[in-house]
Structure formats: C-alpha cells, structure tokens
Amino acid sequence: MAGSGAFVELLEEDVYKYYFDGEWRKSASGKSVSIINPTTRKPQYKVQACTQEEVNKIMETSKVAQKAWAKTPLWKRAELLHRAAVLLKEHKNPIAECLVKEIAKPAKDAVTEVVRSGDLVSYCAEEGVRILGEGKFLVSDSFPGNDRNKLCLTSKIPLGIVLAIPPFNYPVNLAVSKIAPALIAGNSVVLKPPTQGAVAALHMVHCFHLAGFPKGLISCVTGKGSEIGDFLTMHPGVNCISFTGGDTGIAISKKAGMVPLQMELGGKDACIILEDADIDLAAANVVKGGFSYSGQRCTAVKVVLVMESVADALVEKVKAKVAKMTVGPPEENCDITPVVTESSANYIEGLVMDAKQKGATFCQEYKREGNLIWPLLLDHVRPDMRLAWEEPFGPVLPVIRITTVEEGIHHCNASNFGLQGCIFTRDINKAMMISDAMETGTVQINSAPARGPDHFPFQGLRDSGIGSQGITNSISMMTKVKSTVINLPTPSYTMG
C-alpha cells in the first residue's frame, strides 16, 4: 500500500500518520479514517482520526514557529520553497500513484498535477521576493493642509496561522496554491486535506518536510470533518482561512470569526456559442471543458447555451467526439474514470433522471456501473430541469438552445454561481460586450474555462466565492499592511 521507500516513515501498521512539529505521529484517538478507492469501491488507505486536543497543540506550536519564521529573511524562505519544488517533482510518481487510487485521476493527469504544483511553488518563491521586497513611502504634504513633517513607511507583514483546506479534485495543486503563498509571506500553515486525497497531500507535505522547513511551521491534520471540521475553522488561533470546495465553504464563511477568507466554491460555468463561432473549435472545447477529469472540476463547462441556428451542427460534432472517448479505470489513462464517491454518482443520477422525466433529449444512452458514469450529452434541456442550474460535478453536460444572445447572458447571470464562463464567436467586439455583461469572475474568449496559468487572478462572484486567488493575489491576501509614521520636528524657522 505504501508509496516509494522515501515515504516509509509516514506509515505505521498500514495507517498513515499525521504531521506535527516536524514529526510524523499517531493520533491519541487510536482511530483511523478509511479512504475508499473510487474504482474498486474498496478501502485503499487509512489516515489518523485526529482529536480536538491535537488540533489545540498544533495551533500552539504553529504560533510559536510563525513568530520565528516572520523574522527569517525573504531570500531564505524562497530558497526552502525552491527546494520543496524540486522534491515534489522528484517524487511525482509515488504522489501521482496516490491520486490515481484515491480520486481516480487518470495516471498522466496525476503526474501533470504534481509537476504543475512544483512549478507553482517555484514561481511563488520568486513572486514573493518581488512583492514583499517592496515597501511604500508616503509624505504628508501630498494631502491638503499638511506640511512635509510626517513620513509614512508601509510594508506587508504576515497574518499568522493560515488554515488551508483544499478539495478532493486537486488535493496537491490546490494545497500548494495555499501553502506556498502563506509560507513566502511569513505565515505558518495548518493543512486539513480532503479525505479523498489525504494520502497524496501527506506525501506532498513530506516533500516540504524533506526540504528542511523549521519544525512546527507546517502541520497536516487528518480526521473526520464531524470531529475537527468546525473546531478548526472556528479556532481562535486561526488568522486566515483559504478554502476550495463546495457548499461547505458557505457554512464556514458564516461561522468563521474576524479573519480574512479566501473561498473558491462551486461553479455552473456557462458556454455561450454564437452563430458566427468556429463550430469545430467550440465542439472541441465543449468536450474538453465538459468531460476532462470526468467533469469533476469547478471550471468545467457545466451548461452549453447555443444559438438555435447552429445547435444541430454543434451537437452532432460533440456527439462524434464523445463516441470516441475511452471509459474505464484511471490506471489505463481512460478519458472518463469513476467519480469520487458513490454519493456523488447517486446525485448525478438524480439530475439525469429529473431531466429524463421532463423530456430532455439523450444523445447517448445513460449508463452507470458503480461509480463509473459514461459521458452523457443532454440536448433540449429547459430551465425547469435541475440540470439547468445545479452543478453535477460529473460527466453529464446539458445543452440549452437559445434564440438571442440576451437569453444566454440572462441564464448565466440568473445562476447563484459566478465562477467562469466562455464565449465562442469570431467577432471580438461582440465577445467584449458579452464578457462585460456576464457576471462571472473570469470570461474566456474562444476557449473552455480553466483555472491556470496559476499566476492569473482567479475568483468567483456570488456563491462561487470570496476574494481572489492566483499566486500574486494569494500572497497579498495572506499579508496585511503595516504603517510606521515618522514625525519630524516642525522647523521653527524657514531655511534661506
């Protein structure tokens, strides 16, 4: 069950340990949490079920470690991050193996996720040195009624302890996108990985451990959400929460105290296809956007809003591409692999059955075996169907036919989500006008929605989130501005 030899210290009697104060430890609870392999639907790994008392100890240690880390020179912090990036890439295969078994990510995509994570950490080290190495200098005589007798120096200082909660679908990449900015900015990090993806996250943390970060600066706590979830997010020791996931984020934001929140939640990313669009390009992006990683991405295309005059052509092209997709286990690099849990598969099925009952056109036969759902395109979906509004997080894509562009924009903006959207047209003026009208954090022109490159700003409106991500924005969000004002004596005479 274990990964490579380098990871042997993480395991004891087939249970993965949690990470605290620079050491791998067993929980005093004596209990563990099982991780079910989505493909076999059998237990694959076990992780510690940590207690609230252990969380308290982690917070105390993190606070002490952070104070020393804040005094560590920027170049030194960057050096350690570069080392962690190299180690992540060196260990890409065992980490990817965990992703295949825990979240049924196709093997090649799993390796790509780890490499991308290493790149993100390196870029973050460089960008952090640039951003944080600059202060600001203000003089008082720039404001009416003031003389030049006050000087203001501003700098960015760390917040303290950052609680990082990544989702199952990118448990490594979306963990480092929180950890690296937090560390370069001088914060300490407490990572609570998702259950599905926890072992990949522990292996990733091990790379930071091997890089030689100070003890206590990074902790990784595993366990039951019911036991330690609210306890972590409402803990008085936490100074910032960075969360990626679904509805849970809304509950966290309501319960969290006066701390900065960075929330990236769900999406119902709309794809608007105009009459003058390159239909081949649109079809290729609809398939890529709708079905890559079995649609389990917040930036997946979740609804296609296509002009009636080109709808038949688009649907035929998409159907032809879907027919060529391979369906099966992630080990074989299939295009469509099992969704993460049985409850996810049941939820997706509920949306499909609702659409069937209300008369949607099935472009393929609905087929499911266990957690594996075959790719499905549903045409003639109407606004009274749940699938028009709810996020399936699976390989099921609704097509809504529209007669005006306004209709498409209205549907996009009527959603309670507003993460990303995309437009296919050859007319740049139309594209810009529609982009302005779409109430989403990002609009892609002539491409499917995507989170990266990882230094681009990434944010959502309404229920899709709070704040903005992307390396630069995350570093800024995980710091606060400190001003020091120097008051000079007022000269009693004018210098001649």
From TrEMBL:
Keywords: Cytoplasm, NADP, Oxidoreductase. Pfam families: Aldedh. One of its GO terms (molecular function) is lactaldehyde dehydrogenase (NAD+) activity. Its main location: cytoplasm. Its EC number is 1.2.1.9. It is an enzyme of class 1 (oxidoreductase). It catalyses: D-glyceraldehyde 3-phosphate + NADP(+) + H2O = (2R)-3-phosphoglycerate + NADPH + 2 H(+). The keyword Acyltransferase does not apply. One of its GO terms (cellular component) is cytoplasm. It is found in: Cytoplasm. Residues 24-483 form the Aldehyde dehydrogenase domain. The keyword Cytoplasm applies. The active site is at 264. Belongs to the aldehyde dehydrogenase family. This is NADP-dependent glyceraldehyde-3-phosphate dehydrogenase. It comes from Cryptomeria japonica (Japanese cedar).
